[in-house]
């Protein structure tokens, strides 16, 4: 019967620490970039001459952000 293999606690701790640090680095330094990507470009904002329904959809979209 084959014995179950396991990862040593030190290796698990090391992997968790590296993963946590990588995630923290991405969140700290790239969060602003991610927010900018989700925002609509000011040049592309729809003028008020469009229908009221379409403008209300745009307004609701901005409220979500």
Share of residues in strands: under 5%
Write the element-wise H/E pattern from the N-terminal end onward. HH
Q: Mean of residue pLDDT?
A: 72
What is the end-to-end distance? 57 Å
- Poorly predicted tracts of residues: none
Q: Specify the helix fraction band.
A: 55-70%
Query: What's the β-strand tally?
Result: 0
Q: Helix- and strand-based class?
A: mainly alpha
Number of structurally distinct domains: 1
Biggest sheet features: none
Shape: elongated
The DSSP helix count reads 2
Radius of gyration: 24 Å
Structure description:
This protein has helices at 9-38, 52-64. The protein has 65 residues and is mostly helical. It has one domain (9-64). The N and C termini lie far apart (57 Å). The model has no long low-confidence stretch (mean pLDDT 72).
Could you give a quick summary of the protein structure above?
With 65 residues, this protein is mainly alpha-helical.
SSE topology:
Elements lengths: L8 H30 L13 H13 L1
């Amino acid at each position: 019967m084959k014995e179950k293999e396991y990862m040593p606690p030190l290796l698990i701790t090391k992997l968790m620490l590296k993963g946590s640090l990588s995630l923290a680095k991405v969140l700290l330094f790239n969060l602003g970039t991610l927010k900018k990507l989700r925002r609509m470009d000011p040049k592309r904002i729809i003028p008020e001459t469009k229908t009221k329904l379409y403008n209300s959809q745009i307004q609701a979209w901005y409220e979500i952000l």
